[in-house]
Give the backbone structure.
Amino acid sequence: MASHAIAGHDDGHAHTHHTTTGLDNRKIAIWAFIGSECMLFASLISTYLIYKGKSLVGPYPHTEYTDASGKVFPAILDIPVTSASTFVLLMSSLAMVLALQAVQLKGTPLPANAGWWTRAQRSSQLWLGMTALLGASFLGFQAYEFTAFVREGLTIKTNLFGSTFFTLTGFHGAHVTVGVLWLMSLLWIDRTRGLGPQDELVVDIAALYWHFVDVVWIVIFTLIYLIQ
Amino acid sequence: MSHDSKSPAHAHPTGATYLKVAVILTIITIVEVWAYYIPALVASPLFNPSLILMSAAKFAIVVLFYMHLKYDHKLFKALFTGPLIIAGATILALLFLFAKISL
């Protein structure tokens, strides 16, 4: 059963209803959606890069700014905090892929000498919960960053950096929020009726969305935070 | 349509592979952040290209292994890489147009 489900994952039709492509339409739809999301984030990233360095007033992302009254605004990006949130999001992707694997492995016999790791790999609730928790932690980091920026004088209307930065990272944060809600709904289903290999595609689609949110952040972290 | 006859015979990463991928992603991220704090590296003309290369490597690793695109049907690969190429080309074209980069 599990081997069938895993095999089904590879070609995207664990649930075999007939389609002209031989592939499950829901999986085609999520990949098409992710493709369209690439375009959305490309437009937001382009806008950020085009306006980079064009702000007339500070605060600036990587350099200090002194206004007319002599008030000094330090470089506003907090790389240590964002590095930590990046690590958290990367680990959430690991947890997500382990959640999918746990759903695929449901129902397969556990070896008699199975260690804690083998047992942990079968717990979809553990990994789904972990993914949602890490995603929520990332949002916590983002909320902290946004409020710190506003306290330091950077809002969405302060300058071009603020406008493009809050729009880009805000859109990404909204995507993470949707992902966390999606994961929590899967966790709730898992706790009430249990997720099994028959639900593999449902979890796979959520996982694809979650990993996409992660890869978008990989790009944002480099282009906005690290490149000066 | 005969599906998937050309894809690997149901090859699928194990939990150990996923852990190794996570370790590689973490190491690349540590190198990126470490480089950010070395002024000599930041001043180097290779700094930005290196960061972009490392970011692209992380992007590809997640897509290939965690999103399973390495093992998936070619239609899914096309649905992702097609728009991704257009998105990348759009960014480059706009950066040229607004003189943010030049040849």
About this structure: Residues 25 and 59 of chain B are 9 Å apart (CA to CA). The mean pLDDT of chain B is 86. Residues 74-97 of chain B form the longest helix (24 residues).
